[in-house]
Amino acid sequence: xxxxxxxxxxxxxxxxxxxxxxxxxxxxxxxxxxxxxxxxxxxxxxxxxxxxxxxxxxxxxxxxxxxxxxxxxxxxxxxxxxxxxxxxxxxxxxxxxxxxxxxxxxxxxxxxxxxxxxxxxxxxxxxxxxxxxxxxxxxxxxxxxxxxxxxxxxxxxxxxxxxxxxxxxxxxxxxxxxxxxxxxxxxxx
Length: 189
What we know:
Helix 8 links the parallel strand 3 (129-136) and strand 4 (159-166). The radius of gyration is 19 Å and the shape is elongated. The chain has a 5-stranded parallel β-sheet with strand order 1-2-3-4-5. The protein is built from 9 helices and 5 strands. The chain is an alpha/beta fold and 189 residues long.
């Protein structure tokens, strides 16, 4: 009696890694359209994949690049920051960071722990930020940091989109610094 091995377990590590990399793209348009609680979101898929078997877990946990591309703030809104910090730790110290959140996942305001985490990412890891697409309720809080950030080198930086809410009570300043013109999408609500 011979035991057959499922075809997926016959794939070489580099093929598996490529599949995991495709699944870990938070900027894939299909991922962006999924509800924040969908099990098909890149971060959730990667986490579930790391729990399939020892081999997959080893490949996924051993890849800092994968984790650096999974800073999906929609899925990191827990009160405690342990999971956010774990993903950042798994991203290593040098890999370019991808950061994203969407308006549909945010409540009336960004949770304080998540806002603190976002500001920490932009402040402490600015030189690693490669792609960022975020919605910020209180843009003034972020603006104070962005003025300083734009003066610092960002060798990995490629794509940016900042969406913010502005109302009569929370207006945008009449003149924005040049840095904002390249990354700000304004939505009046």
